Amino acid sequence: MTIKRIVLICLLTGLGIQGLSQEASAPFDEQFPDGIGKHRELFLHDDKIVESRENVQIVIAQAEKITQQPVVKQDQPWELGHPRWINVLYDAEEQMYKMWYQCLVEYEPYSADPAKRLALLYATSRDGINWEKPRFNIIEFQGKPTNITFFAVQTKQDFRAPYVIKDYSDPDPQARYKALFHCWDFRGRGLGAAISPDGVRWSAPHAYTVMQGGYDTHNTFFWDPHYGSYVAYVRRWQYGKRHIARATSPDFFHWSHDVTVMGPDERDAPDEDLYTPACFRLKEVRNVYIMVTGVFDGKKNIVTPQLAVSRDGVNWTRFRQPFIPFGKPGTWDDAGGWPRAREIPAGEHQLFYYQGVRAAHADPDDHGSQSGVGVAKIKRDRYIGLSAAQKGTVTTKLVRLTHHGAVEPDGGVMALNASAVNGQIRVEVLDSDNKPIPGFSVIECSPITGDQTDFYVRWNNHQNLSPVIGKPVKLKFYLENATIYGFQILRDDPEL
Q1: pLDDT of 68-91, one tens digit each?
Q2: What span, in angstroms and rounded, lies between the C-alpha atoms of 404 and 16?
């Protein structure tokens, strides 16, 4: 068997083609082979694990701005424009937030006169709010160090909109950090590839694009363990409109043809396009992908960050309300913001950065544009909730419960992500005949009140779910003026 055939078989297996054909008729234990609860399980909008809900509405999140002013802006003498094409990650290994952004800088060696060049710059933060711009001797300004880490002319290509990841899956330490960026070669427009050992010192090992297409925006990519490949989300033109497409790669340098996964439809205004594909996979959640796309309205010259969710990264549902609210009239982000999303933890919250604008398609290097980097937040995993204004119920399908960290039936504490500040929640465990299992009825469940990402559910005579772990059961949630978002089964009780 040839290497190419082996790779093809691996890719087809990673894409889950066999699983897709079987899932429709599979019993519960084949639909959820690892059981429910080992990873965080989100309800979302699609009733994937929900059999029925009564008097319950779907609620879509809107992020809350942490500050009303930019957290990063043009403030160095070598910066000739505002930050754009920003991307931020939280480096858990170093316990630091890291930001890469581009702007035009003053740099003399490539011109007889002070030149305006597009460069990649770097900033760091311990809390995600207060940022510093460390200095390096990579590129100097008037003989002094700067935070410029990479320069467009170093690639011998156009170098725009780089998206950076820290990649632990690559055994080569020189390629620990990777970036895809918009560029040109003799074949036309596409994406180039760059690597770095530390996120600061970069090289572009290829003189040519690794993907060909009109990807002139901030495209995103990441290693997806579900498919066993790198996955990129790019912007492509189709039928005269901007769409979001998806491509895969086994090695970061060789990419498949892109396939459209989302585009404007009859619910969008005639002048609206999907401009940016800010997408990521939730790492500790079972099969949930998040996208915050920038929807550009060419007539109004505004950009609306909109939330989209998917269970497989291919089939998406997009919600039209602004995920990040517009700024007040006359402020630096009153025309919206270009979202630059990825999973960025901050305590019990997740952060979302954006490039605020006063005009969506104005030159961000125009000093009158007042562009800058904003940040908003939601509580962890609270993208979509199931909410009852008064009394309602949510009942899951027949599932087999398991717990995180072990396969033994001992233990099993339900951690529920919910809000019941002025209400309460109780949980009941049913058998396959929809009858309450003794000891786990609704009246025996201690009521949950307040607002937490991890409520530990208890019953009068049971502090955990060990008697029902591994058995076919249904979970029934009784809501009273409350909202539930998801749950997980932990082996041990953190409070005991």
Answers
A1: 999 999 999 999 889 999 999 999
A2: 23
The three-class DSSP label of residue 64 is strand
Rounded distance between C-alpha atoms, residue 420 and residue 429, angstroms: 20
Contact 256, 278 (CB under 8 A): no
As to burial, measured by CB atoms within 10 angstroms (0-12 exposed, 13-18 middle, 19+ buried), residue 483 is buried
What residues does each domain of the chain span? Answer: 32-61+384-490, 64-379
State the CATH architecture for 64-379. 5 Propeller (2.115)
Spatial CA neighbour of 303 closest among 318, 324, 328, 280? 324
- Phi–psi pair at 76, nearest 5 degrees: -115, 150
pLDDT tens digit sequence for 106-151: 876 655 444 457 889 999 999 999 999 999 999 889 999 999 998 7
Q: Which CATH topology does 32-61+384-490 take? A: Jelly Rolls (2.60.120)
Residue entry with tokens 């160090």: 145
Q: Is the pTM of this model over 0.85?
A: yes
